[in-house]
Design goal:
By secondary structure, this protein is mainly alpha-helical. It contains 14 helices and three strands. It has one domain: Growth Hormone, Chain: A (Up-down Bundle), CATH 1.20.1250.20.
């Protein structure tokens, strides 16, 4: 199977609206809850974490539902439409309080956040499950996979760089200076963008039939996949570790610039460096062909460590200098771009490997782990941020924080993410063996194809 350029970019542009929602939630929801609604950071962090316990069941079950679906409009496209509409509505609800206060507000926040996670799954699982079926050519996959990731980076760039500015401008028009109305209005704009971009994907990209399109999957198959597909387990480990590295930084960085540095505007400059992530994605296909994915993933893990060191050191000697923020964030985001390219192609290899093991592709079940891991990393980072802020004495609404609080914020943002980045590379180099459609049998090069019945287990 091959794709036209129109189909490639029509599919990829769907990630623009989808990830605008994801990035906005990842960057601002914790801040909105603690510094706009003044909810307890411990409550917020705990909510983020507990909601993911439900997702541990909800996400793979959505994968089963998609795999077992057989709609005339296509199983991926049908669920993508349903999930997009539901998630767009709930997303606006996240940033709308309807005047609720006290216990009622806490209950409303908990319900809407759990619903957000569920509806996001309904949309995200079929989207990424569709990607491995767009083309069967491994090299074309490398070029196609960077397109939705590139548009996702554009979404992250736009929300990160201009988010606070748009919130304040819109609040000046519709609100009273507390940023609440600003958050509500911008959530409506993002939801409209979401509906338009996914609509373009759904109607411009044809859903191709595969040999296992109508396979039926049950609970036993889920257990079998998760317990016997060792490459999927390795993929889960390396992706979760790396996501934790990035999401912890994203979750705490606005607090770091606002309180530890005293210059909130550096948050936008930090997110401006998502341009480096986009550059990494553009370079990925050529670099992967030249150096191989393993070396590229090593760079992806080393660059965030270097970037965080630059930010940490400059925080003491030149805390408000945008130059060092750009250098540090640029290194971190460049590494993130390489990682996004590697893991997006790797999930397709894991699906092909699964078909060789069990005779079924189970795209949606496997891709549901990617959705779950993304939300889990956001949840754990939220838990660490919320509980961590409480432990170091953070007081919501106070412009000045204690020295203990500031140093605690530095540790959460610098030290912990660096550890997860190192762990991710360890898992990749030690346990993940799939590369370029082949199964590596040593640390040097792939030795044998895993396609077909003759498989090296």
């Amino acid at each position: 199977m091959s794709l036209t350029n129109k189909e490639k970019y029509s599919f990829g542009i769907g990630a623009l609206g989808k990830d605008a929602i994801c990035c906005f939630v990842g960057s601002f929801l914790m801040f909105y809850y603690t510094d706009v609604l003044f909810l307890s950071p411990v409550f917020v962090g705990t909510l983020f974490f507990v909601a993911r316990i439900w997702d541990a069941v909800n996400d793979p079950m959505m994968g089963v539902i998609v795999d077992n679906s057989n709609f005339k409009f296509g199983k991926f496209r049908t669920w993508l439409v349903i999930g997009t509409v539901l998630n767009a509505i709930v997303f606006v609800g996240l940033f709308t309080t309807f005047g609720l206060q006290g216990r009622a507000l806490y209950i409303y926040v908990a319900v809407t956040y759990i619903l957000y996670g569920m509806t996001y799954t309904v949309m995200d699982v079929p989207y990424w499950s569709w990607l491995p079926n767009l083309t069967s050519d491994p090299r074309e996959r490398e070029s196609v996979s960077v397109i939705p990731r590139f548009f996702a980076s554009v979404a992250g760039f736009t929300t990160g760089v201009f988010g606070l500015m748009f919130i304040d401008k819109l609040d000046g028009i519709f609100g009273n200076g507390d940023r609440m109305a600003g958050f509500t209005v911008i959530s409506i704009f993002i939801s409209v963008l979401f509906l338009v971009t996914i609509g373009n994907t759904v109607f411009q990209v044809k859903e191709k039939q595969t040999g296992t399109q109508n396979e039926k999957t049950g609970f036993k198959q889920i257990v079998k996949i998760l317990s016997q597909n060792k490459q999927l387990m390795a993929y889960i480990g390396l992706l979760l570790s790396y996501n934790l590295c990035i999401q912890i930084v994203n979750g705490i960085i606005i607090y770091y610039f606002k309180y530890a540095v005293g210059k909130e505007s550096l948050f936008s400059i930090f997110n401006l460096c998502i341009l480096a992530e986009m550059g990494g994605l553009i370079l990925f296909p050529r670099l992967a062909g030249t150096f191989g994915r393993k070396k590229l993933f090593a760079a992806a893990c080393a660059l965030p460590v270097a970037g965080l060191i630059v930010i940490a050191v400059s925080g003491f000697f030149a805390p408000t200098s945008p130059v060092f923020v750009i250098i540090g964030a640029g290194l971190l985001k460049l590494g993130s771009g390489f990682e996004l390219g590697v893991v997006t192609v790797s999930i397709a290899d894991v699906i092909d490997y699964n078909e060789s093991l069990f005779g079924t592709r189970n795209e949606s079940i496997i891709c549901s782990t990617q959705t779950f891991l993304m939300k889990s990393s956001q949840a754990v980072s939220g838990l660490l941020t919320g509980v961590g802020l409480a432990m170091v004495g953070y007081q919501a609404g106070q412009q000045q924080q204690t020295a203990m609080t500031i140093n605690g914020i530095r540790i959460i943002m610098i030290v912990i993410p660096m550890c997860f980045s190192v762990l991710s590379y360890f898992i990749y180099s030690k346990f993940y063996k799939l590369e370029d459609g082949l199964l590596r049998t040593d640390n040097k090069a792939p030795k044998k194809s895993y396609s077909g019945k003759d498989i090296l287990a």
